[in-house]
Amino acid sequence: MFDQVVAEFERYVRDRQLAGVNQVPVLGQWVRRFLVFARTQGHTDFEACLTAFLDELRADLGRPPNHLRRGTCPNQP
Prior knowledge:
The protein has helices at residues 3-15, 24-41, 46-61. By secondary structure, it is mainly alpha-helical. The chain has one domain. The two termini are 14 Å apart.
């Protein structure tokens, strides 16, 4: 469902060299995971949706989401 959006995001990141080549697909996985989450939540406010997403990650992973800054994607959906 989000394939085109994720592909465009990955292309944007790759074209501008915003992340290493190996990190681009991982970032795309995180974008997809967030989009799936956001669709199920019905938040109209981006900040509230992002906060809820990070709270869920903390609960699911049992640790703070600072691994996001390293470009890793544990427990891929």
